[in-house]
Amino acid sequence: MSTLRLEIVTPERIVYEQDVNMVIANGVSGQLGVLPNHVPMVTPLKIAPIRVKKGNSEELIAVHGGFMEVRKEKVVILAEAAEQGADIDLSRARQAKERAEQRLASKNEQYDHKRAELALQRALTRIQTSGQ
Ligand code: ATP
Predict the structure, then answer these.
(1) CB 96 near ligand 1, within 6 Å
(2) CB of 87 closer than 6 A to ligand 1?
(3) Which terminus of the chain is more exposed, N or C, with fewer CB under 10 A?
(4) Record's family (predicted)?
(5) In this predicted model, what pLDDT tens digit does every residue of 30-44 receive, in sequence order?
(6) pLDDT of 73-105, one tens digit each?
């Protein structure tokens, strides 16, 4: 089975660097399945898990926005933050979810709802990735 190189990079570290068979990512305008020899493109990503197929296994990686660049034999994802399932602190993500939900439910003007909505998306992405 042919492969492509997947690199996921944040300002802090290289989160993932492996040869894989397929990458399924959530672009802002829809889901994208990327196989080797895909046409080159760049797309912004949603805050969501990406799905990576490698041999018979499949894994999720939490990707918190950013961009995906597809080249012939390589996919590079640049994001503010990203985590593999094993690196996710589930109780921290659950606390972040609670906090964001309380802020969204609150009538208190001090909370920026857009910011709370994004924090909720990150927390849900981490919970989903960690429970894969
Ligand atoms: P929190 O409110 O818990 O800090 P957050 O969504 O505001 O969550 P980010 O700003 O997205 O956090 O991330 C800051 C750093 O902490 C990044 O390096 C990110 O990978 C890491 N991080 C955040 N939450 C978790 C988690 N639940 N498990 C592991 N790493 C996390």
Answers:
(1) yes
(2) yes
(3) N
(4) Belongs to the ATPase epsilon chain family.
(5) 999 999 999 999 999
(6) 899 999 999 999 999 999 999 999 999 999 999
Q: What is the value of pTM for the model shown? A: 0.95
Cβ-proximal residues to 32 (8 Å cutoff; 6+ apart), any chain: 24, 25, 26, 43, 68
Kindly report the protein residue whose alpha carbon is nearest to atom 16 of ligand 1: 81
| Extended strands (E) in 57-113 | 57-64, 67-71, 74-78, 82-84
Select the CATH number that applies to the domain covering 89-130 from these four: 1.20.5.440, 1.20.1740.10, 3.30.70.100, 2.40.40.10: 1.20.5.440
Residue nearest to atom 31 of ligand 1 (CA): 88
Distance 70 CA to ligand 1 centre (A): 26
Task: Give nearest CA residue, ligand 1 atom 14.
Answer: 81
